[in-house]
Amino acid sequence: MVVNPLRCQGGCPRSGICSRATAARRRLAFVLLELVLIYPAWGEVSSTNHPFAGITIYSETRRQPPTRLFVAEIDLTNPRVRLRVSPGGSDPDGPGEWQTTLMPPTRIAAREHMDLVVNGDFFRARGVKDAEGTNSAFRAENWSAVSGPAVTDGKAWATSNARRPCLVVSRNREVNIEMQDRPNPDDWEVVAGNTLLVEAGVAVPHTNQLRHPRTAVGLDAKRTKLVILLVDGRKPGMAVGMSYDELAAEMIHLGCRDAINLDGGGSSVMAIRDPITAKFHILNEPTDGSERAVANVLGVSVENQSPGVSPPK
Question: Measured by CB atoms within 10 angstroms of the end CB, which terminus of the chain is less buried, N or C?
Fold first, then answer.
């Protein structure tokens, strides 16, 4: 439910009673107003919104340097919340080198009944070199493989030749950040990144100081809150992106004890489901001009809002 500071949480400010349909429309209108329309207002932080139980979202813009970011905080103590990792399409070549096919994140999220989605691991695609905008060749249905370990609903479908930092959800629903080259037997969902940003509350230093669009995830000290950060970039004068060190400092500021960097650049995207129409709205401005087809995503599903797949009891 969206908490509007100008209204009581029950709905109508006069009577305190609203129909469920009216409340849903107000909820949608407030979310879209704050998250889709407000971010060009430089130097402002949007109001805190709760579009679904256990999900809090806000955006922020800054002037020095020009920065635009979106934050989703996920309450892992909420029993209705489920973290999901999903590949794009099916495995195109069986035991061959390719694991999945590229697909836009919102298409994956709609198929998997997610309520919030961001891009996942770094990946390679058959016959494709990285490029942006109209030059981008990351097309849906292209064969692809992720760079790190990957698990979906208890099924491991990717491993790595080297240990990589991963966000791991175990069968008992505990969430951790671990270094892995292959999933453990009790892992239920796994998505990998390329580098640690924060470890035990301390920023991990990086020599690479280039700024890019970024997607990062982190956990607080009690591992009861997941922070998902999306940073727009490659837009001079509007959004320059962040370096790894800047991203680490931001994750610490957001309360993370541990954090990792997921794929970024043209892949960075954050989208939320419209609770009335079920359509997804992309909150940031991907550098390709639209969302890029990717190999896998990290999503959040909220039970009673949309069906999810839960680990066996």
Answer: C
In this prediction, residues 265-274 reach a mean pLDDT of 97
pLDDT at 16: 41
- pTM of the model as a whole: 0.85
Q: What type of residue sits at position 61?
A: T
* Domain layout of the chain by residue ranges: 42-302
Q: Which two tokens stand for residue 91?
A: 């495995």
Pairing of strands 55-62, 49-52: antiparallel
pLDDT digits (tens, 9 = 90+) for 211-244: 999 999 999 999 999 999 999 999 999 999 999 9
Which pLDDT does position 137 carry in this prediction? 83
Q: Give, in order, the Cα–Cα distances in Å from 27 to each of 52, 56, 274.
A: 10, 13, 10
Question: Mean pLDDT across the chain, nearest whole number?
Answer: 87
